[in-house]
Specification:
The protein is α+β, with helices and mostly antiparallel strands. It has 14 helices and 43 strands.
Length: 827
C-alpha cells in the first residue's frame, strides 16, 4: 500500500505544480503595481541577450540578482531574428526563450519590450532592412504594409512565449510587455497618421490576450489600456502617468551613455545615478529599470548610429565583460536594500511632501509596517541644489547635513541610513595584462580579391547611382559602384574626382590603382582626390562603406546611404571643365569577395591560399590570420588592436565586431575631457568626458565561450592599412580594490575572477586624504587599522568590515571630524 500512497502523493504534487494556483496575477490600480494582489516596488535592469553570450547569461543575471534587482528587461531584436523575410533565427545568443528561462531559473521577473522597434543604438533600430524594399511601405505610421509585418512578428513572439508558458499567468517570469518604443519623442511629423498608428498599436497589444499589462514608454498620449512610462536620466516629480490608475514606471534610467567612433567615454557618477533613483521613489515611483545594467558588446554588424562603437559598455553597473563596475554596482546595491526594506511602507502611498527651503524637500511615508525593519515611517530628504550644501533641522527628529545634489533616507524619520552622495563601496581599479607570456603571433595573409571590381565587373547595372541600403538589403557593409569614362583630347590633364556621398567611408580606385580613402565622423561628405586619366576608356571603382545604419528619429528609415544620386564628377583644374558621371551606366557588386568566400571562417574557406612570406604592413584591403592559445585563467579576454586601422575581426568564425582604433576620441566642440567628474547638477550626454586623445575603442572583447582548449584562429580584415604584428591578447583583471567608507557603514572589498586579496597597501581610519592610488593619512588615525584589515582580508576573495571606532580603536579625531576608513588592497 505504501508504494501506491507514494505514487498518489507524487501525482498530486505534479498536478499541483501544473495547476493555475501557481500562476502569477499581475495588475495595477490607483497607482499601484500589483502582483498576486499585493502592491510592489520593483527594481529592474536591462541585459540584452544578443550583446553577450549564452554562457555569460547565468553569471550576468546572478550578479544582477545579487545587486538587488527583481527583474531583467530586454528588447526583442527583430532584424536579428528575421534577417530575411519569413526566415527566422533563434539560435545561440539569439535564443530568446532560453534567455527568459535563465531569468526565471534565477528567481527573477522579466520585462519584455517587443517593440518591435527597439532603437537601442542597434542597427536600423532593430528593423529588418528587407522591409525597406517592400512596395508601398512606410515605417512607424498608419501604413498597412508596415502594420501587417509588425503584427506578424509581434504575434510570432507572443505565441512563442505563450507556448513555453513564460507569461506570469502561466507561471512564467514575464510580468510586463512593451509595444512600440519612444514614439512620442518623434511622432509629431507623422501627424494624424501617427495618432492613428499609436491607437492601432494599443489594439494590437490588447488582441494578444497575454493577461499582463502592456507599457508604452515616452508616450504621453498613450491609450488608457497602456501604461505610459518615462525614459531619461531623471524621472522624478516632473513625470506623472496619464491615467490615475497607472503606476509610475521608469523603463530607462540611463546609467551612462554609448560611445561613438571619434568620441570620448561617457562617465555617470554612482552618486548621481543613486540620487536619480532615490528621487524617483521619493516622488511615488514603483518600478525603475536601469538602461543598461549590462551593456555588453555589439557583435557582428549590430551597432547602429551610424558610427557607434563595438563596445556597448554604457558605464553600466556590470561592465562590457560582466565584471562589477565599482563603486556603481555596490552603491546601488545598498540603495536597493534600503528601498526593499521600506517596500511595505512605500507602496501604501501615504506620503506628505514638505518644502524645507528652496530645492530641499522632505517626503514622509507612513503606514502599517508590521514585520518591516524600517519601523513605522520612512523619510526621503532631498537637496536638489547644484552646489549648495544644507544643514536641515528636523527638530525632534534631529539635525542632518545634506550635501548638494543628494538625498538621505531616514528610518523612522530620525536616523540616516543612506545618503546618495556618501559612497561607502569599494572602487575597483582594473587593468589589462598580457596573456600567456605575451608570445609573439605568427601571421599569414591574403589580399582581398578585387580583379573583378577593379575591372568594373559587377552583378547588376543601372543608369543611376543607387541607394546603398536598398541595394544591399544590409547583407554587407560594402557596395561597389563602378563605371567607365571615355577620355579624348578635350579632357584637361589635371583632373579631380569629386564624389558626394552619404556613406560613412569611401575608397576610390581609378584604372585599378587606389587613389585614396576618406570618411567623416557621422558620415556624409565630399570626397575629392586628383586623378590622372589616360586617353580612351578609364575605369572608376568606388567602394562605399556603411558603419551602422541610422537607428533613431522621425523617418529614420529614409535616411540615405551610399553614393545615391551623387553627383560623381570629374572637375578640371581651371574650373571650366565639369563632367558629371551620375547618369553613366554603373555596375554594382554587393560585399567583398572575401566575405562571399568566407575568408573569416577557416572551416568554410580554402586554407591553401594564405601566404606566409612577405607579410605586408599598412596595406589596404588585406586579410590576416594567426593562431593562438586561449589565455589561462577565467578573467575576460580582450585583443589590443591599437596598431590596426579599420576593419572587422573574427575568432574561430565568431564575429567580434568592427574595429577602428585610428578613430581618436575628441570631446565635442566647447567641451573637454577630465579625470574628475562633478556629480552635482543635471547629467546629460555632454557631461563627464574622459579618454580624449586615445582611440575611442582600443580593446575588443573575446568571450571565453568563443575559445577552444587547443589552437584558436584570429582573422582580421583590414580596410585601410594596419600592423598586425603589434596585436596582443590580454586579460582584464582587478588590480586594486579601494574603499573610502564613512563611519557607521560596512565596507566590502573583493577581487574578481577568483583572485584573492594579496596585501593591504594602505589603511587609515580617521580623516585620510587623497584618492585611490594616492591615499595618505590625515591629522588623526587609528593605529590598529592596518592590522585589522590584514587579518580580515588578506588571502580571501572578499571581506567585510564594520567601519566603527570599536573595530579599529580610537582615532583621536576631534568630535567635529567625520571619520572615514580609507583602504587600498592589492589583488
Amino acid at each position: 500500500m505504501g508504494s501506491w500512497i507514494d505514487m498518489l502523493l507524487v501525482l498530486g504534487l505534479t498536478l499541483l505544480s501544473l495547476s493555475p494556483s501557481w500562476a502569477t496575477d499581475v495588475s495595477y490600480d490607483k497607482g499601484q503595481f500589483l502582483i498576486n494582489g499585493q502592491p510592489r516596488i520593483l527594481l529592474s535592469g536591462s541585459i540584452h541577450y544578443p550583446r553577450s553570450t549564452v554562457e555569460m547569461w547565468p553569471d550576468l543575471i546572478q550578479k544582477a540578482k545579487e545587486g538587488g534587482l527583481d527583474a531583467i528587461e530586454t528588447y526583442v531584436f527583430w532584424n536579428a531574428h528575421e534577417p530575411r523575410r519569413r526566415e527566422y533565427n533563434f539560435k545561440g545568443n539569439l535564443d530568446l526563450i532560453s534567455f527568459l528561462k535563465t531569468v526565471q531559473q534565477a528567481g527573477l521577473y522579466a520585462i519584455l519590450r517587443i517593440g518591435p522597434y527597439a532603437c537601442a543604438e542597434w542597427n536600423y533600430g532593430g528593423f529588418p532592412v528587407w522591409m525597406h524594399n517592400l512596395p508601398g511601405v512606410k515605417f512607424r505610421t498608419d501604413n498597412q504594409v508596415f502594420k501587417d509585418e509588425m503584427q506578424t512578428f509581434t504575434t510570432l513572439i507572443v505565441d512563442m512565449i505563450k507556448k513555453e508558458k513564460l507569461l506570469a499567468p502561466q507561471g512564467g517570469p514575464i510580468i510586463l510587455l512593451q509595444i512600440e518604443n519612444e514614439y512620442g519623442n518623434i511622432m509629431e511629423p507623422y501627424k494624424e497618421e501617427g495618432q492613428r498608428y499609436i491607437q492601432w498599436c494599443a489594439k494590437l497589444a490588447e488582441s494578444q490576450n497575454t493577461g499582463i499589462p502592456w507599457v508604452m514608454c515616452q508616450q504621453d498620449n498613450a491609450p488608457q489600456s497602456m501604461i505610459n512610462t518615462c525614459n531619461g536620466f531623471y524621472c522624478d516629480f516632473s513625470f506623472k502617468p496619464n491615467n490615475p490608475k497607472s503606476p509610475k514606471m521608469w523603463t530607462e534610467n540611463w546609467t551612462g551613455w554609448f560611445i561613438g567612433w571619434g568620441l570620448p567615454f561617457h562617465y555617470r557618477a554612482a552618486e548621481d545615478v543613486a540620487y536619480a533613483v532615490a528621487r524617483f521613489f521619493q516622488s511615488g515611483g514603483v518600478l525603475q529599470n536601469y538602461y543598461m545594467y549590462h551593456g555588453g558588446t555589439n557583435f557582428g554588424r549590430s551597432s547602429g548610429g551610424p558610427y557607434i562603437t563595438t563596445s556597448y559598455d554604457y558605464d553600466a553597473p556590470l561592465d562590457e565583460y560582466g565584471l562589477l563596475n565599482q563603486p556603481k554596482w555596490g552603491h546601488l546595491k545598498r540603495l536597493h536594500e534600503i528601498i526593499k526594506s521600506a517596500e511595505k511602507i512605500l507602496v501604501q502611498k501615504s506620503v506628505t511632501h514638505k518644502d524645507i527651503e528652496s530645492n530641499v524637500v522632505l517626503s514622509t511615508f507612513t503606514g502599517n509596517s508590521t514585520g518591516n525593519s524600517t519601523g513605522n515611517s520612512v523619510c526621503f530628504l532631498s537637496n536638489a541644489n547644484n552646489n549648495k550644501d544644507v544643514n536641515v533641522d528636523l527638530q525632534n527628529n534631529g539635525k542632518y547635513f545634506l550635501p548638494a545634489w543628494s538625498l538621505s533616507i531616514l528610518v523612522d524619520c530620525n536616523k540616516e541610513i543612506y545618503n546618495t552622495a556618501k559612497v561607502s563601496t569599494q572602487i575597483s581599479m582594473k587593468t589589462k595584462k598580457p596573456s600567456n607570456g605575451d608570445t609573439e603571433l605568427n601571421w599569414v595573409w591574403r589580399a582581398e580579391p578585387m580583379k573583378d571590381t577593379l575591372n568594373g565587373q559587377g552583378s547588376s547595372t543601372a543608369k543611376q547611382l543607387l541607394e546603398q541600403k536598398a541595394t544591399t538589403a544590409d547583407a554587407s557593409d560594402y557596395l561597389w559602384y563602378m563605371t567607365r569614362v571615355n577620355v579624348d583630347a578635350t579632357f584637361p590633364k589635371n583632373t579631380t574626382l569629386r564624389v558626394n556621398t552619404t556613406g560613412s567611408v569611401l575608397h576610390a580606385y581609378v584604372n585599378k590603382k587606389r587613389i585614396g580613402s576618406d570618411w567623416r565622423s557621422g558620415g556624409g561628405f565630399v570626397f575629392e582626390k586628383p586623378v590622372i586619366l589616360k586617353k580612351g576608356v578609364n575605369l572608376i571603382s568606388l567602394l562605399s562603406v556603411t558603419v551602422g545604419l541610422t537607428n533613431y528619429g522621425s523617418f529614420f528609415d529614409l535616411v540615405p546611404f551610399g553614393i545615391v544620386g551623387g553627383p560623381v564628377q570629374l572637375i578640371g583644374s581651371t574650373g571650366n571643365f565639369n563632367k558629371d558621371l551620375s547618369s553613366n551606366e554603373w555596375s554594382y557588386k554587393i560585399g567583398l569577395n572575401g566575405e562571399n568566400q568566407h575568408f573569416y571562417d577557416d572551416k568554410l574557406s580554402r586554407k591553401n591560399q594564405w601566404a606566409s612570406e612577405g607579410l605586408p604592413i599598412n596595406r589596404p584591403m588585406t586579410w590576416y590570420k594567426t593562431t593562438f592559445k586561449a589565455p589561462l585563467g577565467k578573467n575576460p579576454v580582450v585583443i589590443d588592436m591599437q596598431s590596426m586601422s579599420k576593419g572587422h575581426a573574427w575568432v574561430n568564425g565568431h564575429s567580434l565586431g568592427r574595429f577602428w582604433p585610428t578613430m581618436i576620441a575628441q570631446a565635442p566642440k566647447g567641451y573637454s575631457c577630465s579625470d574628475t567628474c562633478d556629480y552635482r547638477g543635471n547629467y546629460d550626454d555632454h557631461k563627464c568626458f574622459s579618454n580624449c586623445g586615445n582611440p575611442s575603442q582600443r580593446w575588443y572583447h573575446v568571450p571565453r565561450s568563443f575559445l577552444n582548449d587547443g589552437d584558436n584562429i584570429l582573422i582580421l580584415f583590414e580596410e585601410i592599412g594596419g600592423n598586425p604584428i603589434k596585436i596582443s591578447f590580454q586579460t582584464v583583471t582587478t588590480e586594486k580594490a579601494c574603499g573610502n567608507a564613512y563611519e557607521g557603514s560596512t565596507l566590502e572589498l573583493s577581487c574578481q575572477g577568483g583572485q584573492t586579496i594579496s596585501a593591504i597597501e594602505f589603511a587609515s581610519f580617521g580623516d585620510p586624504q587623497g584618492k585611490c592610488g594616492s591615499f595618505k593619512k590625515g591629522s588623526c588615525d587609528a593605529t590598529n587599522t592596518l592590522s585589522v584589515l590584514e587579518k580580515s582580508c588578506v588571502g580571501k576573495e572578499s571581506c567585510s568590515v564594520n567601519v566603527l571606532e570599536a573595530t579599529f580603536g580610537s582615532s583621536s579625531c576631534s568630535i567635529n571630524t567625520p571619520k572615514r576608513l580609507a583602504v587600498q588592497a592589492a589583488c
